[in-house]
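re: ur question from earlier - yeah i can do the single chain one, its not a big deal. heres the input i used so u can compare w yours
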Amino acid sequence: MYRSYLLKNQFWAKKGNEKNENVEGEKIFIKHDSEIGGIYAIINNNDRKGVKIIVNGEEHWFNNFDKLDSFLGRLKQKEDDFMKILRRKNMSARLRTLDI
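and the output i got, formated as tokens:
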């Protein structure tokens, strides 16, 4: 279930995920974002079913698709806000150099 959701959201399976069955029953997915960096998703298929998301060294556990989707959406929103600020600062710096 989580595998198809992560693949739809541009996560990539770690090499060897499908061939080798990990001892712990975990599947690892990776997504890289230019502003956030690496986002890691670890699907646990043992007694505690769900997905662990690691972003900026912080671990977040989800066993509900709605909460996972809103969390990933908030990450994207933070990224968009950050880029807007950078663009605005760059534009104002360029406008200040114009001779008007």
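Residues 2-96 form one domain. not sure if urs matches, ping me
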